[in-house]
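Please fill in the sequence for the structure shown.

STRUCTURE ENCODING:
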């Protein structure tokens, strides 16, 4: 009990400074890591000849040379960030042992100094041990994070469903623990006493022999309480969100909004608790290390190696932190506003596309329909584009405007001014009277940072430069990660790839025959839902491409597409699709969903 009390005291003394450091450090390093990893993943996919990572091609993709190089680079960067973080926290607790407050700047300086020393000693094994320890204490968090990532979540589900999946996983965890636990204090001996890695590991093993069960109990109870706290905060936050959604969101959208909010709450809480996990475990281990060393030697072991930073040095670190914070803010803005490969349908779970905008609730291909798609939390909005007489790229599905505007004229025979004078809303409902035909430029400007686009190029002949103009517009607005381009006309897709190979393209087909999905000029297949089968999805996935199914509106069709494993569902009713695809079991309303969360 004395060790527990001392651990609490040591953690509390510098807690605000440590928490401040962790928040600053992670807000600096995580966006930078994600940005570089996103670029590396895009390069690895392109070099490997894949457009998407799916359950069917995951292992083949991982074995590609460029993928291995990318994983190695990402791993080295992660090892560096993790080692600096641990060294910085160790600096904080080292000062706390002497009842000295340590500022975030001093922590960072200490962490950099310690990793420099390890580099000079060539202790390359230490970061590997730290990574193993980090994985071990964060197994639950890692599982929760991977459950949000396609196709890893699919592989985990398939493994769990097998008779040997759970025993093998349990054996792997036990084996990892048995390998790493003896070296629990390697970090302390190496960074605090400047011993070599081999001596640090040996000393840690000797120390753990004496207090193995005591240390294991402290770590186990600490992490168990932290996990329980995380679940309690999660449930409380979801409950409060549900109450607010019930009060302020219209009933038809409540479940879909809560599904989206719940996923974001989960990720935020996982991010925060991963910090608390590091703070807690290093605090416990540092106190245990000093106390066990004291008993071993029969005398106090406190020997400060920390140093107080001068005002000038602190000022330099402050300026460095401000510069890095600015860079981090830029990375966060870029990832959220311009989109990222990791945040696109290349890695995430099944996506929902609003067909011609949310055309079940507003006139198709209008700004109102696109705004409704954003409100209904669709991931993509599918729009149809063609050219006016004066070369403007406008949204319209039909060549002739009779159905939409009551005018028996073709889009290509009217100028932009004439087209925008038409009313394409009254034919849907008097509520939308006066709704004009928007331009692609207007729509992209509105949607940037809000929603992704599936831009269908209508076949208006070979003489048009529509593919090149759309490509130029996407490039100019820096929306390659927010846009895909599809068409029934192969020539347009070939020209789109010639204009910019990085823009993802999709071939629209009404029926599924042959192996057309292997063509390098398109990255996904947009297929009529009645022709989608599980076997076809697997074959397309093995080719490194995705399947978008259209137009899926009924509950039965939505369930069928979900079971088939399609990557994107194109529907007139995005709210209904999200509820079907993401709800747990058979929940039909908000109350049932909350009840299921509490039963987990």
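FILLED IN BY: designer on duty
SEQUENCE:
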């Amino acid at each position: 009990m004395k060790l527990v009390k001392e651990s609490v005291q040591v953690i509390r003394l510098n807690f605000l400074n440590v928490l401040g450091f962790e928040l600053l450090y992670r807000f600096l390093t995580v966006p930078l890591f994600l940005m570089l990893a996103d670029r590396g993943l895009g390069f690895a996919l392109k070099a490997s000849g894949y457009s998407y990572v799916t359950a069917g091609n995951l292992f083949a993709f991982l074995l590609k040379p460029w993928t291995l190089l990318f994983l190695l680079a990402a791993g080295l960067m992660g090892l560096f960030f993790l080692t600096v973080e641990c060294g910085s926290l160790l600096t904080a607790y080292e000062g706390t042992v002497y009842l000295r407050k340590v500022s975030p700047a001093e922590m960072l300086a200490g962490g950099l100094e310690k990793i420099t020393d390890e580099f000079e000693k060539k202790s390359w094994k230490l970061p590997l041990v730290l990574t193993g320890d980090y994985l071990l204490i964060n197994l639950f968090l890692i599982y929760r994070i991977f459950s949000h990532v396609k196709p890893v979540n699919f592989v985990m589900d398939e493994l769990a469903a097998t008779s040997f999946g759970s025993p093998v996983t349990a054996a792997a965890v036990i084996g990892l623990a048995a390998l790493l636990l003896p070296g629990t204090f390697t970090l302390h001996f190496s960074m605090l006493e400047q011993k070599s890695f081999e001596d640090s590991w040996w000393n840690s093993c000797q120390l753990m022999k004496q207090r193995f069960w005591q240390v294991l109990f402290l770590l186990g109870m600490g992490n168990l309480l932290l996990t329980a706290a995380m679940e309690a905060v999660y449930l409380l936050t979801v409950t409060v969100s549900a109450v607010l959604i019930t009060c302020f969101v219209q009933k038809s959208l409540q479940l879909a909004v809560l599904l989206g909010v719940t996923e974001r709450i989960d990720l935020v809480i996982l991010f925060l608790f991963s910090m608390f996990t590091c703070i807690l475990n290093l605090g416990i281990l540092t106190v245990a290390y000093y106390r066990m060393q004291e008993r071993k030697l029969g005398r106090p072991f406190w020997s400060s190696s920390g140093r107080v930073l001068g005002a000038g040095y602190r000022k330099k670190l402050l300026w460095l932190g401000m510069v890095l914070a600015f860079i981090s803010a830029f990375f966060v803005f870029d990832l959220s506003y311009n989109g990222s490969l990791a945040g696109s349908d290349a890695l995430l779970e099944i996506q929902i596309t609003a067909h011609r905008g949310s055309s079940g609730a507003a006139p198709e291909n209008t700004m109102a329909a696109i705004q409704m798609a954003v409100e209904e939390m669709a991931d993509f909005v599918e729009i149809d584009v063609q050219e006016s007489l004066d070369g403007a790229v406008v949204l319209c599905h039909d060549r002739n405007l009779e159905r939409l505007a009551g005018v028996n004229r073709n889009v290509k025979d009217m100028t932009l001014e004439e087209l925008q004078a038409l009313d394409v809303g009254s034919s849907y409902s008097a509520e939308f009277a006066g709704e004009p035909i928007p331009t692609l430029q207007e729509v992209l400007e509105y949607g940037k940072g809000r929603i992704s686009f599936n831009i269908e190029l209508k076949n208006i002949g070979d003489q048009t430069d529509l593919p090149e103009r759309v490509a130029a517009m996407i490039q100019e607005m820096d929306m390659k990660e927010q846009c895909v381009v599809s068409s029934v006309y192969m020539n347009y897709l070939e020209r789109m790839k010639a204009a910019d190979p990085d823009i993802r393209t999709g071939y629209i087909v009404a029926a599924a025959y042959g192996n057309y999905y292997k063509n390098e000029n398109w990255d996904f297949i947009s297929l009529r839902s009645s022709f989608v089968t599980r076997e076809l999805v697997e074959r397309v996935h093995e080719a490194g491409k995705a399947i978008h199914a259209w137009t899926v509106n009924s509950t039965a069709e939505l369930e069928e597409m979900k079971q088939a494993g399609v990557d994107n569902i194109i529907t007139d009713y995005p709210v209904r699709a999200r509820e079907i695809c993401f709800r747990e079991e058979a929940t039909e309303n908000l109350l049932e969903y909350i009840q299921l969360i509490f039963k987990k």
